[in-house]
Amino acid sequence: MRIIGGLLDIHMRAQIMARYEVGSEEWHHARMDRLGGSEIAAVLGLSPWESRFSLWHRKQGIGAPTVETDEMRWGRLLEAPILAEFERRHAGEFDLNADGITLANRERPWQIATPDGILIHPEDAGITLGIVEVKTARTADGWGLEGTDEVPVYYRTQALWYLDALGLSVAHFAVLIAGSEYREYIVRADADEAAILRDAGAEFRADLEAGRRPNIDAHSSTYQVIRELHEAIDDITVDVPHDIAEPYLAAVAALREAKTAAAQTTAIVADFMGDARRAYWDGEQIAMRVPGRGTAPPFVRYTPPPKAPKTLKETSA
Fold it and tell me: What positions does the domain YqaJ viral recombinase occupy (predicted)?
C-alpha cells in the first residue's frame, strides 16, 4: 500500500488537526467539543451504537467513553487489508493517504472528519479526488446493490458529514461482508442533506452549551449511561410518580405477555415445520431451524425482513 506523507489542506475548506489513534485518550479529548462523522448519526437518532442522550453525556464528560466491542476491534484490524484490496482494484486512478489524520472545517471548527483514506490525484498532490471509508458487516442487511449509494443510513450520514466538512464530492465505501464478500459503494455530496446535518449538529452543540439534557429514549446506550451515572446503591426508598410508574408497569406486563405468546407461537411454527430448515409466509422467510449447542436439538429462530437502504431525507420525512 502506498502511503502519501504530508497532505495539503483540502480545497481550502479544512485544516489538519492531528493524527490520533482511534479510541485513545487524545482522540476522545480532541472530540469533546466537536462532532465527528460517526457522532452525527447519534445526534439524529440513527446510530445503532450511540444515542443522542448517551452522546450528550459523554460530551459533558459524564459517563465512561464508548468501549470497543469485538465487532469494532475486528473492523479496525481488517481495515488495512480491505484498503489494500480497494487500492488494488483502483490502481493508477489515485494515490491513497491512509495516515488517519483528523481534519476540521475552517468555518465550523467543531465539524471534524477522520476518513479512513483520502484519495489524491496521482499526478498532482494538491488535488483531492474524494475519500474512502472501510466497513465490515456480518450480513448484507442494509446494503443495496453494489456500485450504488445504497448504504446504511448511519454510514451515509458519516460520509455526507465528511464530504461537507472537507468540501469534497465523492465518498467511496469498501465493504467486507460476512468475512469474504467484498463490495464497493459510492455516496455523492448532497447539499440538502448536508444542511440537515449541519443544522442538527449546531442544535446539539447549543443543547450542550445550555445544559439541556435530551429526553430518555429506548436505545441501549441510554440505559447504559444512566447506569454509569448511578453506580452506588444506597439503602433508601423513593416514591415514584404515576407518570413514571404506570408506563413502566404496563411495559413489564406487556413484555411478559409477549414472551408467553412468542414461546407458544414458536412451538406451533416448529411443530408445523417438522424437519424443514426454513419457513416462508407470503413469499418471505419468517423463520429458520438452526442447530442447537452440543447435543441440544435444533430450535426455531425468527428471520427479520431485510433492511431496505434509506436516505437521510427519508428518515427525516
Answer: 26-163
